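Course assignment 3, question 2. Fill in each field.
Student: A.L.
Task: Predict the tertiary structure for the chain below.
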Amino acid sequence: QVQLVESGGGLVQPGGSLRLSCAASGFILDYYAIGWFRQAPGKEREGVSCIGSTADSTYYANSVKGRFTISRDNAKNTVYLQMNSLKPEDPAVYYCATDDLRAVVAGTPSYWGQGTQVTVSS
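Answer field:
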């Protein structure tokens, strides 16, 4: 069965960095796109970044461009989100999700992880 497990969240000061990991199991990650989404309390879920199956296609929300980097290691069945220069508006539960690229870009992937909390505070 498809399973996605996020890790790497935590508390960081403004300007700090975190690297989130999304470990996939139950399917071969090579053939699928992965997206990172986030949801803060009282706000709608938003797409943060996504990467195509070949890693040639990457997308970023305007709010994170230049600060976040998505990457994938198919040999480890894992996707990463490197988050630098974290801002007070970045805290949320971050989720990874998978499906074909069209569904991920549309924000409607079929499979989701349980999420990892990111907190930015001094």
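Instructor remarks: The mean pLDDT is 95. The radius of gyration is 13 Å.
Grade: pending
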